[in-house]
Amino acid sequence: MEIKKISHYAILSALITAISLVVVIPIPGTNGIVTLCDVGIAVTALLFGPIAGLFVGAISGGFIDLLAGYPQWIFFSLVIHGLEGFMFGYFFQQKNVAKVLGLILGAIIMVVGYALATNLLYGFGAGIASIPSNFCQAGFGVIVAIPLVKILKKATGNRLKYNS
Predict the structure, then answer these.
(1) Is 68 left (phi over 0), alpha (psi -120 to 50) or beta?
(2) Which residue, 108, 107, 124, is CA-closest to 116?
(3) Which residues face 27 on adjacent strands?
(4) Which domain holds residue 86?
(5) Pfam families from the xrefs (predicted)?
(6) Angstrom distance (rounded) from CA 61 to CA 25
(7) pLDDT tens track for 36-84
(8) Is residue 164 part of a domain?
(9) Contact indicator for 145, 48 with CB cutoff of 8 Å
(10) 54 in helix, strand or coil?
(11) Can you name the residues that pair with 32 across neighbouring β-strands?
(12) How many CB atoms lie within 10 A of CB 65?
């Protein structure tokens, strides 16, 4: 992998981590948090493709948990947000119907992944209880990312393209 790409992924991960730590909503019933990370992961994946989505999703998801004081979630966030970012980016490169499918599948991966992880850590009831907040976080991320990507492409003269 090129040094330039690694640098871009690192900068995007740091930016998403910082923005996500501005708004951290604790969820006491699941010992988890709701952040804005899905917005950044979706924007990155939609603009720069699946590999960028994978790396930036995994790195920012893990760092958010570490810095917010939720280390028990780091491994799960690496996997779940990485897969979510990959799914967003992979399908967004396809035809129109597949673009929507990718956004839905990415959100489902996040919601189901955290429900399973919460079930593993805290039990079935907590896993079920995590679904509404994770659904809101994933849905908000997708809903905000779509117009933001359009604005960013228009502002850059559509020079932002897939490079992964």
Answers:
(1) alpha
(2) 124
(3) 32
(4) 3-156
(5) ECF-ribofla_trS (PF07155)
(6) 15
(7) 899 999 999 999 999 999 999 999 999 999 999 999 999 999 999 999 9
(8) no
(9) no
(10) helix
(11) 27
(12) 24
